[in-house]
Amino acid sequence: MTDAAPTGTQFSPRVFSGIQPSGGLTLGNYLGAIRRFVDMQNANQDSGIETIYCMVDQHAITVWQNPADLTRNTRELAAGYIASGLDPAKSILFNQSQVAEHAQLGWLFNCVARMGWMQRMTQWKDKAGKNQQNASLGLFAYPALMAADILVYHATHVPVGEDQKQHVELTRDIAAKFNHDFGVDFFPMTEPVIEGAATRVMSLRDGSKKMSKSDPSDMSRINMTDDAEAIASKIRKARTDPDALPSEVDGLAERPEARNLVNIYAALSDQTVDQVLADVGGKQFSEFKPMLADLAVAKLSPISGEMARLMETPDEIDAILRKGADQAREIAAPVLKKAYDIVGMIR
Ligand code: AMP
Ligand code: TRP
Q1: pTM here?
Q2: Is there a smaller number of Cβ atoms within 10 Å at the N or the C end of the chain?
Q3: Residue tagged active-site, from 165, 177, 213, 283
Q4: Which CATH superfamily is domain 218-309 in?
Q5: Annotated catalytic residue: which of 210, 234, 289, 299?
Q6: Which residues approach ligand 2 with their CB closer than 6 A?
Q7: Has 90 been annotated as catalytic?
Q8: Domain boundaries defined on the chain
Q9: CA nearest neighbour of 318 among 50, 93, 68, 18
Q10: What's domain 14-199+313-343's superfamily in CATH?
């Protein structure tokens, strides 16, 4: 890991990331985020670098969530983390609302961040849509809470998919403005970590749209809980073009759907896109799609099986989250305390 951009003070490396329990997990979440979380957990095992992974339930409620669904989705997300290889003995796993320090630092950041910064966020523009007046205040302030999630741990590295880059950059802006306004060198300049062949997995129905848990069409995404038949059928019906696959990356330039399927294949098989194309170049989709379906089923079904098993004992999941929250609070509380001191608040 590279050091966080220097601010004068050296911050020791620490990894934080989060996912919203606002629906089921998709293949995009898995390849863009969770697999990276696991890699960073395992790579940093011997170095003492903490890896902290959160279910950001307070972000989820910036748009309406049915309460029973929120509870279930939070547990299912925790099950997805664990089934994918995150280990509560190696990483801190918890849900955001159990660690009040996130919202508390979030308030300070609401007072540091500027309206104009928030207005420029593409996720805000996409999610608020045409009727911004009707969006929740929480949806607008969302990136300030995200900055607090990260900075309440002084996290230096944040593994995310491509779509979150702008939010991590805003986190740096908030850290820099806080440091500047109070004449301190307190918050680090956090780096996004965006790696792998699938940092932006696209919809199976439309190669110009991100694969998303909130897409109205279930055929557009592979859910981590889909069974083998559903996975195979979605891949079979995925939109493609009539041409054979190229042997080189350049040949994918104007073919977003083809590129997406090849990227997914590369990510799932731990190969580069070049390696995959060296193998499958010249094949028709009628031949490539079943290969991809077999690979996806082989990689995903052990995970969905384990998720289902874990979901049978929700109390155990809740106990893991409570323990994780206690560990997280131990790191967050002194950082918040110091931030309050810096601002001049009496405690
Ligand atoms: P969200 O589901 O919006 O909370 O996203 C959680 C994490 O998954 C973030 O790091 C996202 O960047 C990542 N992610 C979500 N959708 C995709 C996608 N289609 N491709 C790659 N990464 C994604
Ligand atoms: N905004 C992220 C997403 O939609 C989720 C998130 C909230 C997050 N807080 C975070 C990601 C802190 C990384 C770090 O995907």
Answers
A1: 0.95
A2: C
A3: 213
A4: Tyrosyl-Transfer RNA Synthetase (1.10.240.10)
A5: 210
A6: 16-20, 56, 59, 146, 149-150, 158, 160, 164, 167
A7: no
A8: 14-199+313-343, 218-309
A9: 93
A10: HUPs (3.40.50.620)
